[in-house]
Task: structure prediction
Amino acid sequence: MTIQHTDWEVSSTHAQMIRDNWPDGVKVRRPELLKKIPGVTGKRFTETVKSGVWIKPLGSQPVKTFSSVRDVERKTLVVFVSGSSTRQSGSTTDYEQIRDKIRDLFQDRRVTGLSGEIMSFTSMGDYDMDDVVSRKYDIDIIEISTVFREDR
Result:
């Protein structure tokens, strides 16, 4: 079995699609794709998190689709951080516009153009944050998943 696309390639495609479809009038800086987001450790946010929109690969896992064949799901994490320490002028409505656009782009459709894609969809992640972080920041998470039929 050969891997058609790496986690990084898939997340790069997701990030580029988000940048290319950035809503008009949104003043928040376009997202950065990183291997590791500062302040995000595993499934937890810490005080070192910074304001902005951040994207990182979340890895992959085997899934069973309609045909009961084992396919692979590759996930990308998108984190929206706004809060008191932000130097950006972005308001929550800007973040809401971006979140809505991401959901529209990836929800229940083939969208990436990558070979072997069966379906993409979005979901909310389940993350913890310490009290200081939850008081200081407003954090939202979307996980983008794309399921691929891998070569056998």
Q: What stands out?
A: Helices lie at 7-20, 92-106, 131-136.
